[in-house]
């Protein structure tokens, strides 16, 4: 062992110094450290790069390097620090794109000044630090806010095949947080840099970067940086959560994060398990997911909601990573490739999607008009399957098919066009009253597009009451019924 000393302000700074023994795919083997801890920072003296301790035994220490591994030379000295891995955190990160060491990588060319440091591998809040989730996080997506409601502090998995709209769901949710005092963090892991650019441009064009930030570790980044990205995003989110803010963090995607951790583990010569993943793959993801929370009043009443995204192969949700994430989250939104190709977008399969928080976070009005939607949709899909072997329809079956087709059209929604809650209440109240089933497909389009403009002109007080109370009182129902009749007469769509 070599002990290095350095003078600083006429005082000794004593460090443990080892040497580089081997470098392999971003993993550096170091010998000469008598002590170390997991997550400790080390300095590669000659190159000026930093590393993070991720494994050790009685002889060697394994660390991955931040930056270009080619700059690390065999036999070069490595100095350990007495601190664990921390990153700067603060409000200055809003509107920026940063890497896994919280350094800016956008085109602003302005350094980020942050006055605090946050530990990357922080323990999750304890049970006594939390309170029950009772407030809804509005996504602006009709099928989610009505049938699969998300609460602030919840962990909701978005899972499905490639190119089925998983990222679009998350981006639309971020766009919908405008003027809702929610800080949004989009974490990009292992994907193409060009795709990240498209996401950043979409958020910028929609004005979402005013309250959002991006933590990016593209496929071109080192394995260590890709592994750290979700933990860095959670650390920045915790800064806002512990200051009483509401935070939404999207991890896109955790499948690629599992791949990169599997690669690191195989390089570290750890024993592979199911699908060649190491035995602790469940722990590294569960310790991350547990950091989502709704804090109690003593800690500021902040919340952090997680949207982890996972990719399936041909709809198989029973894979190692997917089943692990299902078991450690509070529900899942399953995006079906078959529904996507049928044109039902967002292509959410209500049979496999669930929110374990339930309807308790919904407003009274939304809860009332949406309580039978899942059943109506399930009956409609079952009837469609039975229709393949039957030709004669009874009156009751025909009515159910017409109602299901109306609901399908009502739940269909274009990307990047989130909807506010009052509009959802009006549209689904009309469906609940069974007055949309008499409309043609064109009439439905006209109703959904123009009914709110009609109400703003003829009944602004009604909309104000709905926005403030979110209740369908007898007076509100009567006024809505009259407004619908007037609208149908005016547009002549019945």
Integer tally of domains: 3
Query: Count of helical segments?
Result: 15
CATH superfamily of the largest domain: P-loop containing nucleotide triphosphate hydrolases
| Anisotropy-based shape | elongated
Low-confidence stretches: 1-10
Mean pLDDT rating: 90
CATH topology tier name of the largest domain: Rossmann fold
**Major beta-sheet overview:** 9 strands, mixed
Tell me the radius of gyration: 26 Å
Q: What is the CATH architecture descriptor of the largest domain?
A: 3-Layer(aba) Sandwich
The CATH top-level class label of the largest domain: Alpha Beta
Strand content: 15-25%
- Structural class, by secondary structure, is alpha/beta
End-to-end separation: 87 Å
Question: How many strand segments?
Answer: 18
Percentage of helical residues?
Answer: 25-40%
Can I get a quick summary?
The protein is an alpha/beta fold.
Describe this structure in words.
The chain is an alpha/beta fold. It has three domains: 2-83, Elongation Factor Tu (Ef-tu), domain 3; 88-362, P-loop containing nucleotide triphosphate hydrolases (Rossmann fold), CATH 3.40.50.300; 368-491, Up-down Bundle (Lysin), CATH 1.20.150.20. It has helices at 142-147, 166-175, 193-205, 223-241, 254-267, 281-289, 320-328, 337-342, 364-370, 373-386, 395-411, 421-432, 441-458, 460-469, 474-491, and strands at 2-8, 11-24, 27-31, 40-44, 50-56, 60-66, 77-84, 86-89, 97-98, 116-119, 157-160, 182-189, 212-217, 246-252, 293-294, 303-311, 331-335, 354-355. The strands form three sheets. Strands 9, 11, 12, 13, 14, 15, 16, 17 and 18 form a nine-stranded mixed sheet that branches. A six-stranded antiparallel barrel has the order 2-3-6-5-4-7. Helix 4 (223-241) packs across helix 5 (254-267). It is elongated.
């Amino acid at each position: 062992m070599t002990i290095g000393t350095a003078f600083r302000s006429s005082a000794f700074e004593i460090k443990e110094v080892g040497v580089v023994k081997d470098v392999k795919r971003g993993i550096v083997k170091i010998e000469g450290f008598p002590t170390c801890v997991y997550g400790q920072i080390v300095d590669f003296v000659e190159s000026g790069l930093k590393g993070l301790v991720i494994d050790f035994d009685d002889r060697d220490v394994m660390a991955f390097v931040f930056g270009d591994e080619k700059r690390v030379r065999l036999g070069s000295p490595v100095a350990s620090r007495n601190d664990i891995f921390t990153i700067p955190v603060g409000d200055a990160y809003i509107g920026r794109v940063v890497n896994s060491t919280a350094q800016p990588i956008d085109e602003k060319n302005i350094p980020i000044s942050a006055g605090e440091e946050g530990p990357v591998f922080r323990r999750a809040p304890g049970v006594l630090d939390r309170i029950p989730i009772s407030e809804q996080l509005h996504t602006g997506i009709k099928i989610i806010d009505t049938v699969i409601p998300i609460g602030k502090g919840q962990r909701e998995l978005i899972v499905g095949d490639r190119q089925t709209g998983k990222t679009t769901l998350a981006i639309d949710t971020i766009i919908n947080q405008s003027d809702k005092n929610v800080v949004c963090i989009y974490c990009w892991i292992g994907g193409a840099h060009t795709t990240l650019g498209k996401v950043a441009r979409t958020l910028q064009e929609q004005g979402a970067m005013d309250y959002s930030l991006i933590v990016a570790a593209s496929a071109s980044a080192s394995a260590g940086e890709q592994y750290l990205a979700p933990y860095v995003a959670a650390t920045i989110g915790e800064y806002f959560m512990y200051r009483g803010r509401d935070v939404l963090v999207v991890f896109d995607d955790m499948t690629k994060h599992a791949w990169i951790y599997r690669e690191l583990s195989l390089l570290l010569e750890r024993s592979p398990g199911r699908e060649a993943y190491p035995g602790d793959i469940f722990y590294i993801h569960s310790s991350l997911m547990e950091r989502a929370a709704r804090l109690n009043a003593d800690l500021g009443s902040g919340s952090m909601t997680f949207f982890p995204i996972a990719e399936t192969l041909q709809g198989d949700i029973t894979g190692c990573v997917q089943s692990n994430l299902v078991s450690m989250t509070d529900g899942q939104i399953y995006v079906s490739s078959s529904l996507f190709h049928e044109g039902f977008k967002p292509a959410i399969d209500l049979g496999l999607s669930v929110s374990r928080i339930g309807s308790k976070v919904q407003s009274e009005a939304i809860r009332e008009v949406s309580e039978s939607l899942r059943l109506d949709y399930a009956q409609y899909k079952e009837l469609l399957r039975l229709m393949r072997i039957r030709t004669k329809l009874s009156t009751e079956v025909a009515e159910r098919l017409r109602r299901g087709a109306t609901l399908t059209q009502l739940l269909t929604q274009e990307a990047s066009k989130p909807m506010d809650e009052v509009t959802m209440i009006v549209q689904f109240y009309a469906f609940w009253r069974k007055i949309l089933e008499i409309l043609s497909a064109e009439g439905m389009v006209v109703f959904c597009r123009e009914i709110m403009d009609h109400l703003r002109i003829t009944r602004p007080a009604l909309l104000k009451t709905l926005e403030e109370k979110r209740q369908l009182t007898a007076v509100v129902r009567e006024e809505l019924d009259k407004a619908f009749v007037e609208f149908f007469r005016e547009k002549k769509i019945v």
